[in-house]
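Sample 3 of the quickstart, ligand pyridoxine-5'-phosphate:
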Amino acid sequence: MTKLSVNINKIATIRNARGGNNPDVVKVALDCERFGAQGITVHPRPDERHIRRSDVYALKPLLSTEFNIEGYPSPEFIDLVLKVKPHQVTLVPDAPDQITSNAGWDTKTHQSFLTELMDTFGGAGVRTSIFVGTDIELIEYAAKTGADRVELYTEPYATLYPKDREAAIAPFVEAAKVVRSLGMGLNAGHDLSLENLKYMHDNIPWLDEVSIGHALVCDALYLGLEKTIDAYLDCLK
Ligand code: PXP
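Result:
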């Protein structure tokens, strides 16, 4: 079964636009779970422009599904993850001012840094995942760090999908097979949507988890949150 983890950063972005607590990110997260999502993802950034550290602490004791914290492993981020101890940490290589993640790790260059982090998080009982592209060598280096999983960066798939979905999925199927043969779990995320998710899942049914934020929140404006989550879960059947 492929789990749907809802990234609630965009909900926090809307809240932060007015300075109050509307929408309430904790309530939205709990409603996502109630509507069937099997996980919640947050991406706290150093400037707290969407999810804040205080949101992460508030969510932890209330969530009943899988909690995934993603982000760049700065000292503050590492400290937060070790204090909160979510089910999973996903490491992304993005700079603090980046609008959103736009590449996977160069796991070859950063092998020793990542290996140390896998030991730190793994030792604290937190499952580890590294955000990567489809370059096979870099996936092999991700395995060498001791990561439990990788998350494939799916923006290139989403971009090519409307023009040529077979060409779009091909490198991802190849990469997903390598991930499986190396004994790692497999997540995917970025720009997945109601348009392209089902085809990805049909071609890579052994995906453990997808992490989806932007498109899901946009769809919820029209369909409502409950129907939107239903529609995403349908794509993963
Ligand atoms: N995975 C990672 C590592 C991300 O950084 C993001 C965006 O914060 C996502 C998944 C979700 O991407 P989207 O918002 O496009 O669904």
